[in-house]
Write a structure and sequence with these properties.
single chain, about 300 residues, alpha/beta, Rossmann fold, eight-stranded mixed sheet, 9 helices, 8 strands
Length: about 300
């Protein structure tokens, strides 16, 4: 593990106490937004375009050399409560576009608790349907997400499969939250190791989003869904995370269903370290792997 990663883990451990202790969702959003101001803007050669799609604020991100017909539909993390494609995630979006040579479309789906489940799911499905209606081909698309957005990625694919819509060519997730019933052993065993996610507060976050819905409903907790017919997936997670078992158990379920799974277990890194690629080399290395995976599975495309 790099010196930069070790140093930043110390910073995150201190921030964890100040940001997540006795903090309501509105105050948390303000703290996260203030912290996001320190994230550098993308390089000049990255093309950014805001667009309102289906009533939702979206961000198109296209690196030099990225194909406009190949789409990575990105769902940001933040416990379904905070974060935004336009602030906290702008760095990872352009890096994924650059490494995958795909155009990224990220959506700011509606957040809980004001908009609980299934609002985020409905928004993700709506944008995916819009892409299909614009003529983008499913074999040229992937859905990707981190943390809650990773769980939403799998929930979205389950939903569109059950709706009879064509599935994307692949999915990519980083530290996905796949079990809102919070039954993973790592929630306990990694409680002190995880320098960012307060594992003992996951239940409160799940309640914000579920608002009384069954925590084992597959579209909210894809760990409990039927994995039949799912597209190939890449999962990246740190061995120190409270959500480690959310990844390991989902990967095992996919493999039992005959789905191609690449599960990358990284040592000693913080939750969704890929969003820290501007600081730590492991973030850049992980995104390179994401790029290789996407280039492998998204077929040669033509204009829609």
């Amino acid at each position: 593990m790099s010196f930069q990663s070790n140093a930043f883990k110390l910073v995150l451990r201190m921030l964890k106490k100040s940001m997540f202790t006795n903090t309501n969702h509105e105050a948390l959003r303000k703290k996260v937004d203030r912290a996001a101001r320190h994230i550098p803007d993308p390089p000049d050669y990255i093309d950014l375009k805001k667009q309102t799609i289906e009533g939702l604020s979206c961000l198109w991100v296209k690196a030099r050399g990225a194909e406009p017909q190949k789409i990575v539909f990105y769902l940001h993390g933040g416990g379904y409560i905070f974060c935004s494609a336009h602030t906290t995630h702008k760095d990872i979006l352009w890096r994924i576009s650059q490494e995958s040579r795909c155009t990224v479309l990220a959506v700011d789906y509606r957040l809980a608790p004001e908009n609980p489940y299934p609002a985020a799911l409905e928004d993700a499905v709506s944008i995916y349907q819009w892409l299909l209606n614009q003529g983008y081909k499913p074999e040229h698309m992937a859905i990707a997400g981190d943390s809650a957005g990773g769980g939403l990625t799998y929930g979205t694919v389950l939903k569109i499969r059950d709706m009879g819509l064509p599935l994307p060519a692949a999915t990519v997730t980083m530290s996905p939250w796949t079990d809102l019933a919070i039954t993973g052993e790592s929630v306990i065993t990694n409680l002190k190791k995880d320098v960012l996610i307060p594992g003992d507060g996951l239940g409160e976050g799940a309640d914000y989003y579920l608002n009384g819905a069954d925590p084992r409903t597959p579209y909210a907790s894809p760990l409990y869904g039927d994995a039949t017919g799912m597209p190939p997936t890449l999962i990246q997670v740190s061995k120190d995370e409270v959500l480690l078992d959310d990844s390991r158990r989902l990967a095992a379920k996919y493999r039992e269903a005959g789905i191609a799974v690449e599960l990358e277990l990284w040592d000693g890194l913080p939750h969704v370290w890929q969003t820290l690629a501007m600081i730590i080399p492991e973030g850049r290395a992980a995104i390179k792997n994401i790029g290789r995976f996407l280039r492998k599975h998204l077929h040669t495309s033509e204009r829609p």
